[in-house]
Design goal:
The chain is mainly beta and about 230 residues long. The chain contains one helix and 17 strands. The protein has a five-stranded mixed sheet, with no helix packed on it. The chain has a five-stranded mixed sheet with strand order 13-15-11-10-17, with no helix packed on it.
């Protein structure tokens, strides 16, 4: 009779204490919370860069490690203050959105990968509306024309063109090219801010043809506006 009572008592201890031990282990893990989970930046003019901030909090008891941030497109850059977040600590994620290639409603996401055992990845959303610019863009090109004079067939001429953004919105030079393979062009700075300049270097090879030869330089601009070139 005594042996039976002892066996029941030991079994009762096991039933009572095992769940408490298991719960204690579960608490020693990281937990991720992101706020806000969605940001609506409203309306912006096409070509503007928008900077946004998300916050990550470690709601667990162990160190939360942010393994990587994966933006949903090349138009976004995301960076975090630090990758290892202590229990109870909060850090910021900075997001920069480039609107050059968009018009109208836009919605993009960023995937946050972490060592949270319950949620290994979380998604945050960026949305808004991109409007066409109501203003005109002007550029000033100097010189706008050259008379190069006599050139030997095997000669090579090198010239520079100064491009100034005289408007009030930034522009980008997507491509600089000649009207034929005889003209090679390169750009010092593709992004031109308001009242800033960029230098286009031209190398002109006359070739074997004799007589008067006319060549042109073409600039392709990445802008969502009407463009007026002033000589």
């Amino acid at each position: 009779m005594k042996k039976m009572i002892l066996a029941v008592f030991i079994l009762s201890l096991m039933v009572i204490f095992l769940p408490e031990y298991s719960n204690g282990k579960d608490l020693e893990v990281p937990g991720i919370k992101i706020f806000p989970e969605m940001v609506d930046f409203g309306k912006v003019i096409q070509g503007e860069e928008k900077e946004l901030t998300f916050r990550i909090k470690n709601t667990g008891k162990a160190i939360l490690e942010i393994k990587r941030l994966t933006p949903g497109c090349d138009c976004m850059e995301a960076s975090i203050e630090k990758n290892k977040i202590l229990a109870g600590e909060t850090v910021n994620i900075k997001v920069i959105l480039d609107t050059w290639d968009y018009l109208g409603d836009i919605e993009k996401d960023i995937i946050v990968f972490s060592n949270d055992p319950k949620e290994s990845f979380r998604k945050v959303i960026v949305r808004g509306n991109v409007e066409a610019a109501p203003l005109e863009i002007e550029i000033n090109v100097k010189p706008s024309r050259w008379i190069l004079g006599d050139i030997a067939p095997k000669g090579m001429l090198e010239r520079e063109v100064l491009v100034r953004n005289t408007g009030d919105k930034p522009i980008r030079i997507h491509k600089a090219a000649g009207s034929s393979r005889k003209v090679k062009a390169s750009v010092s700075t593709k992004y031109i801010g308001v009242n800033q300049t960029s230098m286009v270097n031209m190398k002109i090879k006359p070739g074997r043809r004799k007589g008067t030869v006319k060549q042109s330089l073409y600039l392709t601009l990445e802008i969502p506006y009407e463009v007026y070139a002033q000589e």
